[in-house]
């Protein structure tokens, strides 16, 4: 079970993502969010994968690769903080990652497989963190963040983007 992080454990930017997460069994939450995302991917018509709901917005492939990139970065931060590394880690500009990711040219199967592999690694990482590790706080992008806040931000970030895909790309 995961104890909800206190507001001083993360930048206010992450409040929305953390609030999207229901439940206190982190591993179950990570498994459930991934299952829902996988189902969403399987049920997305192929003609929608390259759709952009507005100029300058990402297509579905790019959104999914963004989820992969962000989860990897969050896990890297969680590992560093859990190991009590006090280095102030840099932020990352998500928009700068889109074009070099080649997401638009990748098959949806390749993206889905990578997303699943990253989530399996995330689950293994967090399964092996004890309470002391989950409570560690480090600094990323100039703001404090605890390992437990990162864990919920990962799940909430995925929930947020899946909601956007359903509402703005698939009109559900």
Structure, described:
The protein has 172 residues and is mostly helical. The protein has a single domain, classed as Up-down Bundle (Four Helix Bundle (Hemerythrin (Met), subunit A)). It has helices at residues 15-20, 26-42, 60-82, 94-98, 108-127, 131-134, 147-169, and strands spanning 88-89, 137-140, 143-146. The longest helix is centred in the middle third of the chain and has 23 residues, at 60-82.
Topology:
Blueprint (H helix, E strand, L loop, with lengths): L14 H6 L5 H17 L17 H23 L5 E2 L4 H5 L9 H20 L3 H4 L2 E4 L2 E4 H23 L3
Parallel strand pairs: 1-2
Antiparallel strand pairs: 2-3
Helix pairs in contact: 2-5, 2-7, 3-5, 3-7
Uncertain runs with pLDDT below 50, 5 residues or more?
A: none
Question: What's the CATH H-level superfamily name?
Answer: dinb family like domain
Question: Mean pLDDT, rounded to whole units?
Answer: 96
Q: How many separate domains?
A: 1
Output the number of helix runs: 7
What structural class should be given to the helix and strand makeup?
mainly alpha
Indicate the CATH architecture: Up-down Bundle
CATH topology assignment: Four Helix Bundle (Hemerythrin (Met), subunit A)
CATH level-1 class: Mainly Alpha
The counted number of beta strands is: 3
What distance lies between the first and last C-alpha atoms, to the nearest angstrom? 32 Å
Q: Top keywords for this entry?
A:
172 residues, mainly alpha, Four Helix Bundle (Hemerythrin (Met), subunit A), 3-stranded mixed beta sheet, 3 strands
